[in-house]
Specification:
Helix content: 25-40%
Strand content: 25-35%
Mean pLDDT: 79
Order of helices and strands: HHHEEEEHEEEEHEEEHHHHHHH
Oligomer: single chain
Low-confidence stretches: 41-59, 318-340
Length: 340
Amino acid sequence: MEVLLWEWEETRAEFFNCESMCKFLDEIGRRDVILYCQLIPQRIHFKPGVEYSQYWRNVAEPEEVAFRLHMAVFADNPSVGGLWSVMIAISGNKDIKMLNKVVKGYVVCPVRSIAIGQGEDMNLTINIKSQGWSLKGTPRTVVLPHAQLQILTDNQDFVCHKEVTILHEESNKYQFQAQIVASLGEREVKFSVHGDFKLYEDNSTNGEPIYELHSPKAKSKWLPVSKRLKLCQMLDWNIPLGNNWKMMVEKIGLDFQALKQIEEVSYKEGRSPTELLLQDWEARQPTHFTQDNLYRVLDQLERKDVIMDCGLRLSSSLDNPLTNSSPAFNATLRPDSLPF
């Protein structure tokens, strides 16, 4: 492959660019390579009549990228009526295993890449959206100066971690939801933290709650096998941008133990993690497992490529909602507007 690239650059240098590379990879059906290598064209026409502007997840990019960091969220098992430690880890290294050695606990929000602009500081804000919980001894906003962020990229073995202590004040409330927002200038990267405290109420499992995956009695007809397979194929890949099935777990609002269980079952049984997630979502919340909600979740993931390739549309939209959106339509894409 390396010889081929050298030959291409040597003989046809005028076509050896990001736009041509993306077009050729798309023609052979390898968008996974485009996503994994973060090849981001400015404007490409892959299909007749469709303009792929901002085609991949690059809206949170500064005009001039100084360096990239990788951010993830870990946590221990929460306790009903007690304290819960949530750790925010930031590093120049994207290896989740390396981060997990430094920051102990379960993965709550998988690693995703964040672009840092020239001179930009990072503001970390913790927003608790559920009643019955509060921050204990933890400031709501923390500022990480640009110089400190620069150290992380220069020394990739170093991990900056911020501990958030959450107090469960009302033991009769179980559904926890919070948002960790990394602000960089006018740009924001949001991490959703969900916890079902009912899973941790019974201590008979020695502190290891088991999230039981469910399967629906019959699969929805609005998502036929061909679209389902395409959806799974495009979301199964682990990509640096992080907007795959793992982030979808966050957006749907499942407890972080669901992520762990899906990974284990997928590895042991050789099944698609996206398919396991779709089945569990459909079985637990059949009235909410709709084409509209799937569309909205994928839009929040900024995966318009999946929406287009799977032919998903909002039932209330007569025209293409990707190119003809309205303020009312955009308002439906707010995380707090989802019914689950």
